[in-house]
Amino acid sequence: MAYFLKKIKLKNRTYLAIYESFYSHEKKGTVHKCYKSLGSVETLTAGGMADPVAFFQSEVDSLNQAKKAGGTPKISAVSPLIYMGYFPLKSIMEKLKVKRYIDLFKLTSDFQFDIYELLSSLAYARSVNPCSKLRTFHEVLPSLFHPCNYSYDQLLDGLSFLGANYEKIAELFTAQTSAVYGISTDKTYFDCTNFFFEIDREDEKIRSRVISWSATSLSSWSASCNSMFWKTNIPLRTYLIS
Asked: What are the residue ranges spanned by the domains of the chain?
Protein backbone atom coordinates (compact mmCIF):
# COMPACT_ATOMS: atom_id res chain seq x y z
CA MET A 1 0.00 0.00 0.00
CA ALA A 2 1.72 3.18 1.24
CA TYR A 3 3.62 4.88 4.04
CA PHE A 4 2.26 7.85 5.97
CA LEU A 5 3.38 10.12 8.81
CA LYS A 6 1.25 9.70 11.92
CA LYS A 7 1.01 12.49 14.52
CA ILE A 8 -0.22 11.65 18.03
CA LYS A 9 -0.92 14.39 20.57
CA LEU A 10 -0.33 13.37 24.19
CA LYS A 11 0.19 15.51 27.28
CA ASN A 12 0.95 18.71 25.32
CA ARG A 13 3.48 16.86 23.17
CA THR A 14 3.20 15.68 19.56
CA TYR A 15 4.70 12.26 18.79
CA LEU A 16 5.67 11.27 15.26
CA ALA A 17 5.87 7.83 13.69
CA ILE A 18 6.02 6.46 10.15
CA TYR A 19 3.30 3.88 9.55
CA GLU A 20 2.83 1.48 6.68
CA SER A 21 -0.64 0.57 5.48
CA PHE A 22 -1.21 -2.73 3.70
CA TYR A 23 -3.98 -5.18 2.93
CA SER A 24 -4.44 -8.04 5.39
CA HIS A 25 -5.94 -11.22 3.98
CA GLU A 26 -6.57 -12.40 7.52
CA LYS A 27 -8.62 -9.33 8.50
CA LYS A 28 -9.85 -8.77 4.94
CA GLY A 29 -9.09 -5.08 5.03
CA THR A 30 -6.42 -2.42 5.34
CA VAL A 31 -4.29 -2.49 8.49
CA HIS A 32 -1.51 -0.25 9.74
CA LYS A 33 1.88 -1.23 11.14
CA CYS A 34 4.49 1.01 12.76
CA TYR A 35 7.50 1.23 10.43
CA LYS A 36 9.59 3.61 12.55
CA SER A 37 9.00 5.49 15.83
CA LEU A 38 10.49 8.99 15.63
CA GLY A 39 9.93 10.55 19.06
CA SER A 40 8.26 13.86 19.91
CA VAL A 41 8.37 17.07 17.88
CA GLU A 42 9.46 18.93 21.00
CA THR A 43 12.43 16.62 21.63
CA LEU A 44 13.51 16.66 17.98
CA THR A 45 13.25 20.45 17.83
CA ALA A 46 15.28 20.81 21.01
CA GLY A 47 17.90 18.58 19.38
CA GLY A 48 18.36 21.07 16.54
CA MET A 49 15.87 19.88 13.89
CA ALA A 50 14.16 22.95 12.47
CA ASP A 51 10.95 21.33 11.18
CA PRO A 52 10.61 17.65 12.16
CA VAL A 53 7.23 17.24 10.45
CA ALA A 54 8.49 18.50 7.09
CA PHE A 55 11.74 16.53 7.40
CA PHE A 56 10.06 13.18 8.05
CA GLN A 57 7.29 13.88 5.57
CA SER A 58 9.99 14.08 2.89
CA GLU A 59 11.28 10.71 4.11
CA VAL A 60 7.78 9.28 3.79
CA ASP A 61 7.52 10.67 0.25
CA SER A 62 10.84 9.04 -0.65
CA LEU A 63 9.70 5.70 0.77
CA ASN A 64 6.51 5.84 -1.26
CA GLN A 65 8.40 6.78 -4.44
CA ALA A 66 10.88 3.94 -3.93
CA LYS A 67 8.05 1.50 -3.30
CA LYS A 68 6.17 2.67 -6.36
CA ALA A 69 9.25 2.31 -8.53
CA GLY A 70 9.98 -1.11 -7.10
CA GLY A 71 13.29 0.15 -5.78
CA THR A 72 13.55 -2.18 -2.81
CA PRO A 73 17.24 -2.38 -1.78
CA LYS A 74 18.80 -5.82 -2.11
CA ILE A 75 20.90 -5.30 1.02
CA SER A 76 18.95 -4.01 3.99
CA ALA A 77 20.37 -2.03 6.89
CA VAL A 78 18.07 -4.01 9.19
CA SER A 79 19.63 -7.13 10.68
CA PRO A 80 17.92 -10.38 9.63
CA LEU A 81 18.59 -11.84 13.09
CA ILE A 82 15.49 -12.26 15.25
CA TYR A 83 15.35 -12.92 18.99
CA MET A 84 13.06 -15.85 19.75
CA GLY A 85 14.52 -17.10 23.02
CA TYR A 86 11.84 -15.28 24.99
CA PHE A 87 9.03 -17.57 23.75
CA PRO A 88 8.96 -19.66 26.99
CA LEU A 89 8.58 -16.42 28.99
CA LYS A 90 5.83 -15.26 26.61
CA SER A 91 4.03 -18.55 27.14
CA ILE A 92 4.19 -18.03 30.92
CA MET A 93 2.88 -14.46 30.59
CA GLU A 94 -0.07 -15.65 28.52
CA LYS A 95 -0.84 -18.45 30.97
CA LEU A 96 -0.86 -15.98 33.88
CA LYS A 97 -3.59 -14.00 32.04
CA VAL A 98 -2.47 -10.68 33.49
CA LYS A 99 -3.28 -8.64 30.38
CA ARG A 100 -6.94 -8.24 31.29
CA TYR A 101 -5.89 -6.71 34.63
CA ILE A 102 -3.08 -4.55 33.23
CA ASP A 103 -5.54 -3.18 30.66
CA LEU A 104 -7.59 -1.74 33.54
CA PHE A 105 -4.84 0.85 34.04
CA LYS A 106 -6.03 2.40 30.78
CA LEU A 107 -9.03 3.72 32.70
CA THR A 108 -6.77 6.03 34.71
CA SER A 109 -4.43 7.14 31.92
CA ASP A 110 -4.63 8.65 28.46
CA PHE A 111 -1.68 6.81 26.92
CA GLN A 112 -1.79 6.27 23.16
CA PHE A 113 0.03 2.94 23.45
CA ASP A 114 -0.66 -0.45 25.00
CA ILE A 115 0.69 -0.62 28.58
CA TYR A 116 0.72 -4.43 28.60
CA GLU A 117 2.60 -4.51 25.28
CA LEU A 118 5.23 -2.17 26.71
CA LEU A 119 5.56 -4.13 29.97
CA SER A 120 5.75 -7.54 28.32
CA SER A 121 8.05 -6.54 25.43
CA LEU A 122 10.52 -4.92 27.84
CA ALA A 123 10.49 -8.09 29.95
CA TYR A 124 11.15 -10.18 26.84
CA ALA A 125 13.96 -7.84 25.74
CA ARG A 126 15.50 -8.05 29.20
CA SER A 127 15.50 -11.85 29.03
CA VAL A 128 17.32 -12.10 25.67
CA ASN A 129 19.73 -9.15 25.84
CA PRO A 130 19.79 -7.04 29.02
CA CYS A 131 21.09 -3.53 28.40
CA SER A 132 20.14 0.13 28.89
CA LYS A 133 16.75 1.57 27.98
CA LEU A 134 18.19 3.40 24.97
CA ARG A 135 20.01 0.37 23.57
CA THR A 136 17.01 -1.84 24.28
CA PHE A 137 14.76 0.44 22.23
CA HIS A 138 17.12 0.82 19.27
CA GLU A 139 18.88 -2.57 19.20
CA VAL A 140 16.77 -5.21 20.96
CA LEU A 141 13.08 -4.38 20.52
CA PRO A 142 13.33 -4.12 16.68
CA SER A 143 14.78 -7.66 16.65
CA LEU A 144 11.99 -9.28 18.66
CA PHE A 145 9.76 -11.60 16.64
CA HIS A 146 6.71 -9.54 17.64
CA PRO A 147 6.88 -5.83 16.63
CA CYS A 148 6.49 -3.07 19.23
CA ASN A 149 4.36 -0.02 18.49
CA TYR A 150 5.59 2.75 20.76
CA SER A 151 8.24 5.48 20.63
CA TYR A 152 11.21 5.98 22.95
CA ASP A 153 9.49 8.89 24.69
CA GLN A 154 6.44 6.69 25.24
CA LEU A 155 8.74 3.99 26.64
CA LEU A 156 10.04 6.47 29.23
CA ASP A 157 6.53 7.67 30.09
CA GLY A 158 5.35 4.07 30.40
CA LEU A 159 8.23 3.09 32.69
CA SER A 160 7.51 6.09 34.91
CA PHE A 161 3.86 5.01 35.13
CA LEU A 162 4.75 1.39 35.88
CA GLY A 163 7.22 2.50 38.54
CA ALA A 164 4.58 4.66 40.21
CA ASN A 165 2.25 1.63 40.28
CA TYR A 166 4.93 -0.92 41.12
CA GLU A 167 3.26 -2.33 44.25
CA LYS A 168 -0.06 -2.93 42.48
CA ILE A 169 1.63 -4.68 39.56
CA ALA A 170 3.87 -6.79 41.83
CA GLU A 171 0.81 -7.83 43.84
CA LEU A 172 -1.05 -8.71 40.64
CA PHE A 173 1.76 -10.93 39.32
CA THR A 174 2.20 -12.55 42.73
CA ALA A 175 -1.50 -13.38 42.98
CA GLN A 176 -1.67 -14.79 39.44
CA THR A 177 1.54 -16.79 39.86
CA SER A 178 0.20 -18.27 43.08
CA ALA A 179 -3.10 -19.15 41.44
CA VAL A 180 -1.61 -20.71 38.29
CA TYR A 181 1.66 -22.26 39.46
CA GLY A 182 1.74 -21.99 43.23
CA ILE A 183 4.49 -20.23 45.18
CA SER A 184 7.25 -21.83 47.22
CA THR A 185 9.43 -19.56 49.38
CA ASP A 186 12.03 -22.23 50.21
CA LYS A 187 14.42 -20.44 47.85
CA THR A 188 14.07 -16.79 46.93
CA TYR A 189 16.01 -14.81 44.32
CA PHE A 190 15.96 -11.05 43.91
CA ASP A 191 17.53 -8.80 41.30
CA CYS A 192 16.92 -5.04 41.54
CA THR A 193 18.89 -4.14 38.39
CA ASN A 194 15.92 -3.50 36.11
CA PHE A 195 14.88 -0.68 33.79
CA PHE A 196 13.40 1.42 36.59
CA PHE A 197 16.66 1.04 38.54
CA GLU A 198 18.23 3.50 36.07
CA ILE A 199 17.10 6.62 37.92
CA ASP A 200 17.74 10.07 36.46
CA ARG A 201 19.33 11.52 39.61
CA GLU A 202 21.66 10.36 42.37
CA ASP A 203 20.25 8.72 45.47
CA GLU A 204 22.30 10.23 48.30
CA LYS A 205 21.39 7.49 50.77
CA ILE A 206 22.65 4.74 48.46
CA ARG A 207 25.74 6.64 47.35
CA SER A 208 26.67 7.56 50.93
CA ARG A 209 26.75 3.86 51.81
CA VAL A 210 28.79 3.01 48.73
CA ILE A 211 31.23 5.89 49.18
CA SER A 212 31.76 4.93 52.82
CA TRP A 213 33.51 1.80 51.52
CA SER A 214 37.07 2.66 50.49
CA ALA A 215 38.59 1.17 47.35
CA THR A 216 40.94 -0.85 49.57
CA SER A 217 38.02 -2.32 51.51
CA LEU A 218 36.24 -3.24 48.29
CA SER A 219 39.36 -4.85 46.84
CA SER A 220 39.91 -6.84 50.04
CA TRP A 221 36.27 -7.94 50.11
CA SER A 222 36.38 -8.91 46.44
CA ALA A 223 39.57 -10.93 46.87
CA SER A 224 38.19 -12.87 49.84
CA CYS A 225 34.89 -13.56 48.05
CA ASN A 226 36.65 -14.67 44.88
CA SER A 227 38.87 -16.94 46.95
CA MET A 228 35.83 -18.51 48.63
CA PHE A 229 33.89 -18.96 45.39
CA TRP A 230 36.95 -20.22 43.51
CA LYS A 231 36.94 -23.33 45.71
CA THR A 232 33.36 -24.09 44.64
CA ASN A 233 33.88 -23.14 40.97
CA ILE A 234 31.15 -20.47 41.18
CA PRO A 235 32.01 -17.34 39.14
CA LEU A 236 31.59 -14.03 40.91
CA ARG A 237 31.37 -10.60 39.30
CA THR A 238 32.27 -7.56 41.35
CA TYR A 239 30.92 -4.15 40.37
CA LEU A 240 32.56 -0.96 41.65
CA ILE A 241 30.39 2.16 41.67
CA SER A 242 32.52 5.26 41.20
From this structure: 2-68, 87-180, 203-242
Question: Containing H/E element for 124?
Answer: helix 115-128
pLDDT of residue 242: 32
Per-residue pLDDT of 185-209, as tens digits, reads 787 776 655 555 554 445 555 555 5
Q: Do the beta carbons of residue 32 and residue 19 sit within 8 Å? A: yes
Its pTM stands at 0.53
